[in-house]
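Entry for the shared binder. Reason: the reviewer on the internal report wants the predicted structure included alongside the sequence.
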Amino acid sequence: MKKNLLYFSYCIIVFVFCYSSLIAQQDQKPYKEEEVRFKAGNVTLAGTLTIPKLPGQHPVVILISGAGVDNRDAEVSGFKPFRIMADHLSRHGIAMLRCDDRGVGESTGKHILQSTIEDLADDVFAAIKLLKSRNDINPIQIGLIGHSLGGLISAYVAARSADVAFIIPLAGPVTKTDEMNLKYRKTLLTRQGKTQKEIDRAVEVEKRMVEVTQTGIGYKDLLEDMKAIEESNFEKLNEDQKKRYNSFDEYYQSTWYGLLSSYINTPLMRSFYNYKPVPHLEKVTCPALFLFGERDDQVPIQDSGDLIINALNKAGNYDYTLRIIPKADHYFVRDWSKKEFTPGFLNILSNWILERVDIVK
């Protein structure tokens, strides 16, 4: 009996050891992760560099986040797009650098809203300088992937630096940004079934946002009017709807005006509204892949396609691709309950890049 018990225990131990080894092998990543710190002017940026484990010089991509307050994973509602992209592309032999925004996580500096597009571009230039100094990075194969505002910045940097080997703007704005935001707001309200009177009032407020941000005049009055509109909307909710919130302030922070209130009259939005993307696109000569979500009302390709083609043709750049991702939204997600990119999106990225870089084998 004791022998049988000992034998049975031995079998369990062997099974657990073999199973643990198998799981460890499955979880083992073909790349290493390294914490990095580097200076961009007076700011210290902190990030994660993922590098394939094979020796040699690897192509690399710098990930550039959008206008939100983003950590290095560009996390939104539990979805971590930059972490997912870094994992996928590093498994295909491409090093990846992703950083906390200024004033976020382990990066120093003022809040990102106190920065301009030029400041954020300087962060990318500093990242390029860091990567060019490393022996494990191919200095002539440094690419940029930017989402939304980050896509706009990727073109800005590529227009000014011969060190950029390729860019991939993801839902990057191309039209004048104040006009783009106004059109998006109209589309959103129409879809919500708002009356023409409600849409006209919202358009007036949107125009005031731009004017106040550009001039600084009327800021306090605008915030009070925005809050008054949402107070009126709050009072129209039934009691069950109101019970979802602990207070009006909690409700307000979940509304369109509540979300935008912190962006109005900031250096970032001022520079965003005044920025003209096309002149910079006209100077982009490196390969470029422009991706848009079919269901993205914020940055629709219908408003961008011709502008991109004409600008790159003017630059003498014919190595570019425009592609719509079916059923994808602004974040290239189809189903938010799954916290993942729409099927095929990651392979589009890796396949396009692999055609243009040398992978260490």
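Summary line for the report: The chain has two domains: 31-176+276-354, 177-272.
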